[in-house]
Amino acid sequence: MTDKRFPNPFEIEGPDGVDGWEELYPYSVTFGEGRREYEENRFWFWDSMHWGTAMTPWDSTFFETAIATLSQMNSRHYRIPPADGIDFRVLYGYAYLSPVGVDPEKIEPRVPQFMERAGHYFANWDDLYEKWLVKVKGSIDEIESLNFAPLPEMEDLSVITEGLAVGSGAGLVSSYNRFKDLIIQVWQYHFEFLNLGYAAYLDFFGFCKEAFPSIPDLGIAKMVAGVEVDLFRPNEELKVLARKAIDLGIARAFDDPGNVDLSGDAGAQFQAAWDEVADPWFNFTSGNGFYHFDEIWREHPEVPYAFIKDYITKIEAGEDISRPIDAIRAERDRIVEEYRDLLATDEDREAFDGKLGLARVVFPYVENHNFYIEHWTMSVVWRKVRELGATLSKDGLLGADDDLLYLRLNEVDEVLWDYYCNWAVNAPTASKAHWAPIIERRREIHAKLKAWNAPKALGEPPEVITEPFTIMLWGITTDSVSTWLGSDDDVDGQISGMAASPGSVEGLARLVFSPDDVGEIEDGEILVAPITAPSWAPVFPKIRACVTDIGGMMSHAAIVCREYSVPAVTGTGFGTDRIKTGDRIRVDGSSGTVTILD
Questions:
Q1: Rounded (to 5) percent helix, strand, coil in the chain
Q2: pTM value surpassing 0.90
Q3: What's the rounded Cα separation, in Å, for the pair 408 and 350?
Q4: Rounded CA gap, 432 and 377, in Å?
Q5: Is 586 helix (H, G, I), strand (E, B) or coil?
Q6: Does residue 254 register a pLDDT over 90?
Q7: Mind giving me the DSSP string for 51-120?
Q8: Strand pairing partners for 545?
Q9: At how many degrees (to 10) do helices 378-394 and 168-211 cross?
Q10: What is the mean pLDDT of residues 4-23?
Q11: Closest residue by Cα to residue 198 from 28, 70, 313
């Protein structure tokens, strides 16, 4: 490595006027003097893949829960030999992660523990996955059933006639406590299979690297391509609806996605087709599901309507809008046979077949969890957050529906207790007067934090990065860290990253920093973004290539590009800093390089 280091988290100056920003987050997730020696001597990277802007207290809830449950599965459940988890902090509202490896002396004793635990899942994958779907859907139903309605003037008579005793006030408090429990529960479900999916792929990856020393990482990834996953289903349903609109003779109704008129019999038929698939498939957000401002397709149909409009245009022009899965599978099978034939013994071929087979069985979950948790579950969660916020605003506990976003979870407990107690005695509540100036100040702080440019990394750069999930998901490698620090080998006009999806193309760049920018992408442009979201899948037939700042071989951007045969370079670190909209660039997804031509 280098003697350079990233900024010390204790010495970074944030934006002016944000004194007290730490109060927006639990004390346990901010950098503090009590563990300074540990924190300033670790490597921390900004997880812009999932949390690309400053978080409100409620947004931070899911950051904290997600990373804690990820780590729990690594360290306590499956005992993954080289990886104990990911430590996490918030700095000026931004999410930072630090991979936690395992003491080399303790790796070997964990191997049999991991094999026993992971082996049970691998041997019973289909059965356990079916049970997982039941668990997740049950949790979604329970979250939807929680009652956050305003407290009544008088309890329903059934409370008396049925001898229930427990009333609406206690029910509201209980529903909120259950809401918090369910959030933790579903995030444990999220990582129940995901970490094992990565582990199985990494086992196959390691076998290939040892058996075929010159094989590129991309060659291994292509062997598990050509999958059918539920995460692609929302996009496929849009294609069906686009054809439906054409068949019904109402294609022109979508020319203005923000003003679609579905009146008349044809419009009613289209609406019926929409309603049939909207739940669950359009519980899909414009972003990644982690932020309160992500727009859910069911609630903002103008978003998917715009994609339907694009598909209508392509269909009417005679273009094929299907995913090229047959070609992908043919290439996949060719590569598999080519490398399998290089193995010298039947034993090696049997091991290769077994590891590849397992990787293909578990690989769909790497994408499917994204729909069921980040999108479907989180769509319901955010609806409930808004419902609770509206209730507290309506009954005078808070000043506005979205004030709730600026309270921490435990602070909401206090508001609900105030609500319950004073509803019980029919007396004025104290919450609005107490919280109004605090929330106003937090809004001001958050607005300034959003405008701040967060550093990509903090602390002491590692000599070498070996934690597998950090490499495969986030694309944080020893080489990328060196690039971030400023390597002496940098070439003017060239940016390096992960060779994520093969092919070399040239074209004009289009920078996309948020879902609001997606509609600006023109046919044949190259998408350049901090990271992509699953709901951007409809734009992949339009673009020539994709470049992202962060993301490894198993990031969504890498996987979806391979499935749509779109060249991609991920994990560039500085793609959006160095490339401007309109620049002509060359993207070589086979070598992992991006060249700015002019």
A1: 55, 10, 35
A2: yes
A3: 53
A4: 30
A5: strand
A6: yes
A7: --SPPPHHHHHHHHHHHHHHHHIIIIIS--TTEEEEEEEEETTEEEEEEEE--HHHHHHHHHHHHHHHHH
A8: 526
A9: 150
A10: 96
A11: 70
The Cα 291–Cα 109 span in angstroms is 40
User: Which residue bears the tokens 């023109």?
Assistant: 522
Residue 324: half-sphere exposure toward Cβ, Cα within 13 Å: 14
Tell me the average pLDDT across 396-421.
Answer: 98
Q: What is the secondary structure of 203-220 as a DSSP string?
A: HHHHHHHHHSTT--HHHH
Residue with tokens 């997606």: 518
> 30, 22 in Cβ contact below 8 A?
yes
Model confidence over 310-321: pLDDT tens digits?
999 999 999 999
pLDDT tens for each residue of 107-166: 999 999 999 999 999 999 999 999 999 999 999 999 999 999 999 999 999 999 999 999
**Is 430 within 8 Å of 12 (Cβ atoms)?**
no
Measured in whole angstroms, the distance separating CA 151 from the mean position of its chain's CA atoms is 35
Beta pairing, strands 545-548 & 526-529: parallel
Q: Distance (Å, rounded) from C-alpha 287 to C-alpha 300?
A: 13
- H/E stretch holding 463: none
| Both tokens assigned to 194 | 């995901």
- C-alpha to C-alpha distance for 5 and 7, rounded to whole angstroms: 7
Quick check: 285 and 379 in contact, CB under 8 A? Answer: yes
Structure-token pair, residue 542: 């339009």
Average pLDDT over residues 481-499: 78
